[in-house]
Design goal:
Layout: H1 2-19, E1 23-29, H2 35-43, E2 52-56, H3 59-76, H4 78-86, H5 91-99, E3 105-107, H6 108-111, E4 126-130, E5 141-142, E6 145-146, H7 151-162, E7 168-174, H8 187-196, E8 199-202, H9 204-207, H10 210-213, E9 224-226, E10 231-232, H11 243-252, H12 256-268, E11 274-276, H13 279-289, E12 296-300, H14 320-325, E13 340-341, H15 343-346, E14 351-357, E15 362-365, E16 368-375, E17 378-382, H16 385-396, E18 399-406, H17 421-433, E19 437-438
Parallel strand pairs: 1-7, 1-8, 1-10, 2-3, 2-4, 4-7, 8-9, 11-18, 11-19, 12-13, 12-14, 14-18
Antiparallel strand pairs: 5-6, 15-16, 16-17
Helix pairs in contact: 1-2, 4-5, 7-8, 11-12, 11-16, 12-17
Amino acid sequence: MIHQCVQEVAAIAVQAQVDGLNRIVFVSGAPGAGKTLVGLQLAFDKQLRGDAVFVTGNSPLVEVLSAALKGAYKRRTKRATQAVVASGYANEDAARVIGMSTFKLVKAHAFLGERGKHLDSADGRVLIFDEAQRTYRKGRLVLRKPLAEDEAQMILESVQRTHPQGAVVVALIGHNQAINAGEMGIKAWFRASETCGWRFAISDETLALSEVTSSGDWSNHPLRDRLETGHLPHSIRYYRNGDIECWTDLVLRERSEQAEKLAIGLNERGDSVWITRDLYFARHWVRERRVGQERAGIIASGQARRLAAEGLFVDHKPDIAGWMLAPDGDVRSANMLETVQNQYQVQGLELDYTIVCWDGDLRRAESGWQAWKMSGSSWQRDKELEIATNGYRVLLTRARKGMIIFVPRGDLTGEDETRPKAMYDEIAEYLMKCGACEIQPSLNFT
């Protein structure tokens, strides 16, 4: 499916150069379906790589990809580095030449850094915009300045100034992934298309998504072209069993009975979702399973500030490139299971094994899920429930091979009112009601 999608989108980009029409191409998919992979394949496609720039609002993804690509480049060009030194460069200058290699991976805020002016006139006829649903409306502060227009419109105008004809924006749209307040979603691109007169290609499956139908009927719009392979329906992240995506959705949508039935199938196939109340044991569980070059890490919500009592500090953000790429034994590595990353840092990334830590920012009530935030020394109710649940959706869908959820026991003395035992018990009980399997240390566990 991914290969066919890349081929179809690349053909549209080539056609745009022939007929001179500017176009937006929408590619949608659930978490882990391969949207970013499609974008990267297009960025390095033989037909497009001279024109393509990969732009993403996911800054950590850029940092990890850039570090990984530069590392691979340095390894491949060890002899070339020696040749550079031999040709007259000092060692430190040779390293700088290699380090300045560009891979055309750009952070969205860098793209808007000149208030909509394009970064490089030599590139950008094909702009691949990852997490395209994460654009802001007019007036929103970006880089400490209010946007003069909707961000999506500014992007189209920026590309069009440098490439008046035959420009293409590939908008990679993740659904159920809004984790920041104020994001406009896909409707921003429809509006920008109308304002700027760009044609847009979109599949029937993408048009059927709830986020799209809620923004109006675009199926018969005069600027619309049909796309056959523009929606990626199946996760490739949790490759042993894609049902983990469905289980997560059911848990967060209050479908506990359906989640439990699905979990039974997961258990039978050896893909159980585990839950523990002991962080030390969660680390042990991961270390017993991870082998070789596999990656593991601890992740939690950016609002999970009472995990500090467990020694996990979500406000401390380790360098994501080192966290994802540093080898075993390096204290910067996720594999050390010492530091924690939040949903904003790991969206678009994946690990083989995860410890997902659950705090009181998303908790149970008689009415269902409630969102809370720490304000000063106490929890305050938060109105942004969808943002909170989508944050946990990201966390619960980062693992390729296995996941264990850690729910603290809370303060057993009753002195710390921010960590009531009952609150954490209710979370754990609900997750087990949804089919998560509790696992406890054996008596001889050390």
